[in-house]
Amino acid sequence: MQRTVAVIGGGISGLTACYQLARSPNAPKIILLEGSGRLGGWLHSTRTEDGAVFEHGPRGIRPAGTVGRNTLLMVSELGLDADVLPVPGDHPASKNRYLYVSGALHRLPSSIGGVLRTVPPFTRPLFWSGLHELAAPRGTQLDETIHSFVSRRFGKELADIAIDSLCRGVFAGDCRALSVRSCFPALFEAERRWCSVILGMALGGGKGPALDSALSRRARDERWSQWSLRGGMETLPEALQDFLRRHGVEMHCHARLQRLERTAAECWQITLEDGSVRADHVISAIPARALAVLLPSWAKPLAQELRSIEAVSVGVVNLQYNGATLPITGFGHLVPSFEDHSLLGIVYDSVAFPEQNGTAGPSVRLTVMLGGAWFEEGFGDPEMVPEARLLSRAKEAVRAHLGLAAEPSCTIVKACIPQYTLGHWQRTETISRYLEREGLPLSLIGASYQGVSVNDCIYSAKTAVTRLLDQAR
Predict the structure, then answer these.
(1) CA Rg, the chain, in Å?
(2) pLDDT tens column, 204-230
(3) What is the pTM of this model?
């Protein structure tokens, strides 16, 4: 009898899990359950009539590493090669990245010369931070905050300014609370193995499965810093949906889950608002805290661990200024927490991907990121804050930082980003041990566990499906 696998959550993780299942020999019956009215999760693009594209979630994907090559391989398998918009290494959006400190924009060093001389906002050449790192002793803790780790190895100034800003841009989080072991595992492992992050990153690369494709070879040769798709990032989940329809996957939107329970026949009974679904195995691609609410009472130990995985809200404001030009060109700029708690940074979308500017003439497209770990402090309850307040704050920042004072067109969304705080690795290990000990046919994928990037989500889904299929043999 054919097994049934239910995937709950129709974001990029859930769609990838369905894709990998559907491609396998002797594929099971696959049912995808999504509570909202659309699939794709945070990969959500708005396309205007004149061809402009606005991203409400990730606006580009890095090609580097095993996880980056894996995503490019899937893009090729889906026939999207011609839609890829790369940002090569010599592009301004690759070379020019800025920090906004003390009321001014400062370009981060991107060459040896910049590292050897003092470049504001730093008070000495970054070269000295590198020397400090090479001489620093290996840490002894099982986990450490990112700020503590970088302060110890590179110096407090780099941690206070650059790393603080980076963590706000990547995780919308506070580097003084986030775990280096879980957020930047490559840095943690480099110190463990080589006693130096710099040596470890230089000597420890190149490992992992060979996930080669023409796209990944091109990305390496042209030194891509990131890439997008011509119709926006939502093109990827749309292509996955097309594939799943052709392969008979049942996809249900507005499928709001009420609870999960085990039956006498050792199947999962998934109760929905308007019915139920039975499955031999469940793959959960929803946030950890959302899954915790659905679990039966006997799974309380698992629910407690899931509830401990936090998330923060981010206000994402897309702005378009027709006929305007930026005073600088680059990827964008980040703002350290000591400069402005509520403003995380501004991405210059029209610089990296001018192909998505539309046909209505010259324009500047920006994304302003607000809140994160500081959302409630700056704006109050994420569920109650008026969109007009987020828009006003975004326009004020653009006017102050970039001198653009015209009235823009705009869209506003709120996103959630998981926070890997100290001990996250122990929580995920405890969860894995519980599932194994209880023999539960439940796989956990998505941004709550092993990485928040699109690449991480896609790779974790593929890994989980591979493990599940191996067990079924």
Answers:
(1) 23
(2) 755 566 688 999 999 999 999 999 999
(3) 0.95
